[in-house]
Amino acid sequence: MGKRKTRGDVKENAGRREFLKGLGLATISLAGVAVEKEVEAAPQGSTDSTAKLPTLPTAAEGESILLRMQRDLQRAMKKPLEERRWVMAIDLRKCIGCSACTIACVSENKLPPGVVYRPVIDEELGEYPHVSRRFIPRPCMQCDNPPCVPVCPVNATYKRPDGIVEINYDQCIGCRYCITACPYQARYFDFGENVTDGTPASPERYETSPSPEYGKKWPREEGESPIGNVRKCQFCLHRLNAGMLPACVTTCVGYATFFGDANDHESLVAELVASPRVVRLKEELGTEPKTYYLM
Amino acid sequence: MKRLLYILWAVAFALGSIGVYQRLMWGHQPTAYGSYITWGLWVAMYIYFIGLSAGAFLLSTLVYVFGVKRLERIGKLALFTALVALVAALLVIWFDLGHMHRFWKVYTSFAWQSLMAWMVWLYTAYFLLLVVELWFALRADLAVWTRRPDLPGRIARLLSLGKTDTSPAALERDAKALKILGGLGVPLATAFHGGVGALFGVIGARPYWYSALYPIMFLLAALASGGALLTFIVAFFWPEKGTREHHDLTVTLGGLTLALLALDLLTEWAEFSIHTYVAIPATAEAYKLVLFGPYWWVFWIVHLGLGALLPAAILILRGRQVAWVGTAAFLIASAFISARLNIVIPALAVPELRGLERAYIDPRLTFTYFPSLMEWMVGIFAIALGVALFYVGSRVLPIFETKEV
Fold first, then answer.
1. Cα dist. A260→A35, A108, B344 in Å?
2. Percentage of chain A with pLDDT > 90?
3. Domain holding B258: CATH number?
């Protein structure tokens, strides 16, 4: 899983039309990738480090929106933690329901079967022959008023100063009360299962490779966290700390997922969440999700 | 008959032990719940047992706090039943944890906003209170038993802690201690079992649980089920069966249980009628599952039929015959597990976002649930253990001792 670079030159903060225009170009240049960066090489720890952020090319016209978002990300990482406000925006018109984000997330966070941080809901609307489909990726909403947090009997889950709702894996007792409290069904229990269970090769090496979540290596061993824990999407915190966008953002085929710091008015995502097309799931609950949908 | 019961218990214990072995060896893998229906049989059994405990305890306060003379003889029995049910409840919920060895963190984290944390703290206090109160309730009888040469005598010598004074003044002191402890126990048991109801009631994400009636409903359900359990025990296992006193005691308890059952059904009616009347389908959905879903029979046949209407009819028509009262009480107490299952599971069986059930296919991500064999076996283990504790306790401790000292 890596971050990709493109070459090019133009001013930052390009308008929406410009980057749409740039999409084609960006796609072409993305194909001829540069630099693959291993997650393992990233600075670890939920603590923030701006020291090792990758160097990006100067802003260029027609550059990939990924590059722009990455630049937004770097700006945010240079700010104090509590001044960042990570948000995600998902453009439902662009989502083609390919589930690449789902798979990228599984592979990035080393998720076992039954744990999926970002399923894509596939709805079929209308009746034959007037049928259409709608796809709704469902990461964690990272609510500003997270109902999952106060119910935890051991304070194992909490909202970080930058707004991400985190789980302290070493503290979680696996009671699953938070799972019942989440209105978006965004929390999962790790039963300790592997895809190859019941086969002679079980477990395969790819199944035992440690999860990099929260900037720590979590080897997959019976009885050890994250087995027996509740798990959830954390906007790929370990990648953010390494100056990389969440895995679902970089892999999105249709460039439908946007990510950045909403407190930075120059960031792409700040522009998008101000759009009148924006809706949030179950807004009436007052949970104030930080995952936005563009209709 | 007795032999049959022994064999039944041995089989249950053996099966239960297999279940516990599997749970300890393979963790949560042999379970049938998942990430969507994430609580199952064990949580239902937990609130079932804990309800029996709170109910039995609150009935004991009728004796020790409110001085109801007619029930005096069941004071110790009620306290002991409460203790055994509590142990079974804690055991089964302990197996439900993802990290069993981390349970102590609940005591050190001070998560004061979490109702689950409050519940754990309160039932710890309740456990201690039960032990101390039971000791005071048994003390005078233990003092007498210290003179016995057999095993119970030896146990009595150990447990009496040397306090073998049976003078009227000492008995007076016991009664006073019991009144104080029971008096503390009333708000404690109310808070802790009401709190179990609130644990569900505060979950705004689940319309089925999100109800201010839940704490009240839990208390009434606890009283009804706990009362029924005591009635059943008194009717069939009282040492002096056939006496006038036994008859009166059973009939009184039967009447009390019937009244409590009626109150419980009233709150249930309130919940069902309000939530299924019209309009907001999202709210009614879980109720529809209960009433007409794949497990409709759990509600209609087990809960309403065998657990409520049939025993109510028996208690109304045959309420003065000990065997009938005992049978009705057994039906209420045992079928109550169906009401508990119908509290826990339907709320989780409704997808919170439409289409999620088809978004990612995995056996752990479905909205149907039936407990796995291992789950059943662990549940049976908790029951077998509770029965064994009760049986042994009632043999070696003066639980049923009714002779005046």
1. 22, 19, 39
2. 71
3. 1.20.1630.10
pLDDT at B402: 63
Is B360 a member of any domain? yes
DSSP string, A11-60: -SS--HHHHHHHHHHHHHHHHS------GGGSPPSSS---TTPPP-PPP-
Q: Is B291 part of any domain?
A: yes
Q: Is the dihedral of CA A77, A158, B356, B284 positive or negative?
A: negative
Task: Provide the pLDDT confidence category of residue B279 given band limits of 50, 70 and 90.
Answer: low
Nearest CA in chain B to A102: B360
In a domain, B39, yes or no: yes
Task: Enter the DSSP assignment of A193.
Answer: -
Pairing of strands A230-232, A187-189: antiparallel
Contacts of A281 in chain B (CB under 8 A): 353
Quick check: A107 and A115 in contact, CB under 8 A?
A: no
- Whether A145 is in a domain gets the answer yes
| Domain of residue A134, CATH code | 3.30.70.20
Q: Which range of residues forms the domain containing residue B197?
A: 2-396
Please indicate, yes or no, if residue A90 is contained in any of the structural domains: yes
- pLDDT (tens digit per residue) in A227-248: 999 999 999 999 999 999 999 9
Measure the CA–CA gap between B110 and B117, rounded to whole angstroms. 8
Q: How confident is the model at residue B69 (pLDDT cuts 50, 70, 90)?
A: confident
Q: How many domains does chain B have?
A: 1
Of A114, A227, A230, Cβ closest to residue B34: A114
Domain assignment of residue B47, yes or no: yes
pTM for the complete prediction?
0.89
**Contact B117/A223, CB-based, under 8 Å?**
no
* Residue A152 scores a pLDDT above 90: yes
Q: How many domains does chain A have?
A: 1
How crowded is residue B390: how many other Cβ atoms within 10 Å of its Cβ? 21
Enumerate residues 199 to 238 of chain A having a beta carbon within 8 A of any beta carbon in chain B: 222-223, 225, 227-230
Q: What is the pLDDT of residue A13?
A: 41
Mean pLDDT of A179-189: 97
- Give me the domain span that covers residue A66: 16-294
